[in-house]
Amino acid sequence: MMRIDSWLLATEPVDMRCGMDSLLARVVAVFGAAQPHTAYAFANLRANRMKVLLHDGFGLWLCTRRLHQGSLHWPSGEQPQIRLNDQQWQALTVGLPWRKLGPEMGIALM
């Protein structure tokens, strides 16, 4: 398995036709650079699709997620980027309201 130490969300919606190179350019624009063992998540405007660019320390992986019903609890553009902990990430990817996990699991804004 890959080691992922940080889960980062870009709050601005992206076009889901973007490929790895376009998303890597977005990572550089939003987060400064692609760091090893970090996952960078992006969603479309309706927040029913997500793409995740993973840096495993050696290269990049591009993953996609599509919900057939409902939408992801994606933050609006309050901040350009948000860091999630593991529990919040798990909740987000299955469509649960990850912000309601309790104060001990609150989000850390970058």
- Count the domains: 1
Q: What structural class should be given to the helix and strand makeup?
A: alpha+beta
Q: What is the overall pLDDT average?
A: 87
- In DSSP terms, counting alpha (H) and pi (I) runs of 4 or more, how many helices? 2
3D architecture notes:
- It is a single chain.
- This protein is α+β, with helices and mostly antiparallel strands.
- It has one domain (6-109).
- 18% of the residues lie in helices and 28% in strands.
- It contains two helices and six strands; from the N terminus they run βαββββαβ.
- Strand 3 (49-55) and strand 4 (60-66) form a beta hairpin.
- The longest helix is centred in the N-terminal third of the chain and has 12 residues, at 20-31.
- It is globular, with a radius of gyration of 13 Å.
- The relative contact order is 0.21.
Index terms:
globular, 6 strands, disordered C terminus, alpha+beta, 110 residues, six-stranded mixed beta sheet
Secondary structure layout plus pairing:
Elements: E1 6-10, H1 20-31, E2 38-43, E3 49-55, E4 60-66, E5 81-84, H2 86-93, E6 108-109
Parallel strand pairs: 1-2
Antiparallel strand pairs: 1-5, 2-3, 3-4, 5-6
Brief synopsis:
By secondary structure, this protein is of the alpha+beta class.
